[in-house]
Design goal:
binds magnesium ion, 11 helices, Rossmann fold, 2 domains, alpha/beta, binds adenosine-5'-diphosphate
Amino acid sequence: MKLAVYGKGGIGKSTVSCNLSIALARRGKKVLQIGCDPKHDSTFTLTGFLIPTIIDTLQAKDYHYEDIWPEDVIYKGYGGVSCVEAGGPPAGAGCGGYVVGETVKLLKELNAFYEYDVILFDVLGDVVCGGFAAPLNYADYCLIVTDNGFDALFAANRIGASIREKSRSHPLRCAGLIGNRSSQRDLIDKYVEHCPMPILEVLPLIEDIRISRVKAQTIFELAESNPELEEVCDFYLNIGDQILSGPEGVVPKELMDRELFSLLSDYYLNKTSQGEAEAEKETQNETDFLMV
Ligand code: ADP
Ligand code: MG
């Protein structure tokens, strides 16, 4: 099974990816996570350090694929998850799609691409060009990470459009949305009312997740010494179990940009003005009470 995790920059794709990879490994699957962000920090909390990238290794070996061994580019991370970082073209030059293509080509030459039960691609930001949509060529399911805010849902909607486009030539489905760092989910719910897709899980902002990143560990590793964190691991185990059950998923019917903008802004402004009206009413009641 091939998974592609997408979402707005900084929304928590790599955090979800690493913990989801472990969750899948805990269910007995052989998992490979491929970081496809030029930031090359996707697998950082699995391995504890920034591993050499495929592109760096290819460059060092003058693009002689035959001189590269699996151990040069595939590193074992926490929980038995295998890790690869695709790397990136030099900043401001080249194409991310080329990098993903080279990565898959090398893994195939190393006979590694077909060795895993699950390959998870952790992909950079919003899909802004065909290049970063490249992992969708290989994926069975796309998972979209969002929060309960306009920008991330806007990006999610664009990613949905790319999935729909790719699904015309590939058997690709969107498994659903993952709400991250969200104590509320009303905007996410509003979005899926209009662009139906499953919501796999909604995670709040969890300070221990932030700390786990700084410690270069996943939440599963931290949970070994702090059993209270098993509750947090359950979020990821739940997502993993849903994926392993082979969900039907959807081919999203994205909203037009303007339609999405007015849907979310009308809802949000309405909610805010209602909230203000209620707050004003409450203040009025308090004032009335004081005057009595
Ligand atoms: P992305 O891969 O989308 O760029 P990251 O996974 O690197 O995003 O996450 C960005 C930051 O947010 C990291 O410091 C990470 O620890 C933090 N983070 C992610 N998810 C959560 C969460 N649920 N609660 C608190 N912090 C989180
Ligand atoms: Mg990332």
